[in-house]
Structures are given as C-alpha cells and as structure tokens.
Amino acid sequence: MSEKVPVEVRVNGELRSAAVEPRLLLVHFLREELGLTGTHVGCDTSQCGACTVLIDGRSAKSCTVFAVQAAGSAVTTIEGLAEGEALHPIQEGFWEEHGLQCGYCTPGMIMAAASLLKENPDPSETEIRSGLDGNLCRCTGYQHIVNAIARAAQQG
C-alpha cells in the first residue's frame, strides 16, 4: 500500500480535501471520499461517459483522471449544476423532453451538454450529436437527449 497524499479540490464551489492513495481515480474520490454519488461509474474503461464531470469548466471523464491530478482545480458534478431547488436549463430540458429512461447515463450526458453549451450556446443538431460523442446511452436512441439539449440552448 502506498503512502497517502493530501488533495485539495474545489468541488461544486466548496473547497474539499482528503488524504488519498496516489492512484485513486477522481470518480472514486467524488463518490467514496466526498459522498457525491451522482457521478456514475459505468464501464471503468472511459468508453461510456457516465462519469463525466467538468474540470475547470471543461468536460472530462473522471475515470481517466487521478484525484491528485485534479488538485487545485474546480470540479463541477451533477450535484453542483442546479441553483438550489431550481433545475439547470439542461436538467429541465431532460425532464421536459423525456431525455432519460433508466437514467444511468444522464449525469454524464448533462455534464457533457453543459460543456458543449458553454463553448457553443447555439449548436445545431449535428453539433449536439458531435458534442455527445463518447457518452453512451443504451436506452433512449438519443433523439430525446438531443431535443433536451436543443431546448436548453434555446432557453439560454
């Protein structure tokens, strides 16, 4: 067992710290050390995108990042997207457009969409689909997800 190292990360606006194994993945840091279970562990191979979070405002698969690599960064998880009780426009879009079925991919899809809309606030359907590349859904067929993101873009 290797020696633990201190990690300090701003998660959803709050400075959080812990002593962790150097090879602890960010997804496990979020879920196990911080109790933020909205970020899902899907495939463990970076193929599905269920673990997508924002690191310094950019979409990243948290199963490909060590917690120590995120030290000093700002991480936003699905829990940090809404403003209190008010859903984020992307979350509202998923609700209104039926953009989920089982919901397992939903946090990663929403976080990938947040990154996309930050970079491109008015994407075309093709750009939305491209922005979701690397995030897999096994239930919906994607059209409702695309509609949800388009709705969020319209609402600004």
Rg value: 15 Å
The averaged pLDDT comes out at 95
Order of helices and strands: EEHEEEHHHH
Number of contiguous helices: 5
Q: Which labels suit this protein?
A:
single chain, 156 residues, alpha+beta, Ubiquitin-like (UB roll), DNA polymerase, domain 1, 2 domains, 5-stranded mixed β-sheet
List the SSEs and their pairings.
Blueprint: E1 5-11, E2 14-20, H1 26-33, E3 52-55, E4 58-61, E5 74-76, H2 89-96, H3 106-119, H4 125-131, H5 143-155
Parallel strand pairs: 1-5
Antiparallel strand pairs: 1-2, 3-4, 3-5
Helix pairs in contact: 2-5
Descriptive overview:
The protein starts with a strand and ends with a helix. Helix content is 32%, strand content 16%. The mean pLDDT is 95. The protein is built from 5 helices and 5 strands. A 5-stranded mixed β-sheet has the order 2-1-5-3-4, with helices on both faces. The protein is globular. A hairpin with a 2-residue loop joins strand 3 and strand 4. It is an alpha+beta fold. The longest helix has 14 residues.
Summarize this entry quickly.
With 156 residues, the chain is of the alpha+beta class. Helices cover 32% and strands 16% of the residues.
